[in-house]
Design brief:
Elements lengths: L2 E5 L9 H4 L11 H12 L3 E2 L2 E5 L5 E6 L4 H5 L6 E5 L2 E2 L6 H9 L6 E8 L2 E8 L1 E2 L2 H23 L1
Antiparallel strand pairs: 1-3, 2-9, 3-4, 4-5, 5-6, 5-7, 7-8
Helix pairs in contact: 2-5
Amino acid sequence: MKRRVALAVAAVLAIAPAAMAGGDHYKCTKATQACLDMMAHDMKNSGWVGIELDKSEDGKMLVKKVVSGSPAESAGFKEGDVLVALQGLKFADESNKEALKAAKKAMAPGKEITYTVLRAGAEKKLTATLAPVPQEVLAQWIGNHMLAHADNTAIARN
């Protein structure tokens, strides 16, 4: 079974670095308002590529959707592509974990990024120029994260 990994990740993003690197899901331990403030500040300057991903049981990141009008669409991403590498750093290589974190942290609007994807059995490089995160995507990410805070608060009270 596949589990949905955030995005419009795609991007890439600011809230999904652990998921994109194949690590555990990030759990915010801050108070709700502090977390909201931090997320809004951090995501303000984050780059967005415009893909939605599914992570398969074997850890592969599959492009589930390419957002219409996104940098990913312009770069030629297709549904079914498997993400292999970012800026030449392979996701499956554990020794790249810190370098991938640094590469993702540097992803800002206007910067070019290159993904290596596996399509029809062959690797292909796709380069996209990151855009600012659209307001509706930002609202969705923050809303989903805040709902998790509300769920955690409810569990803690019971």
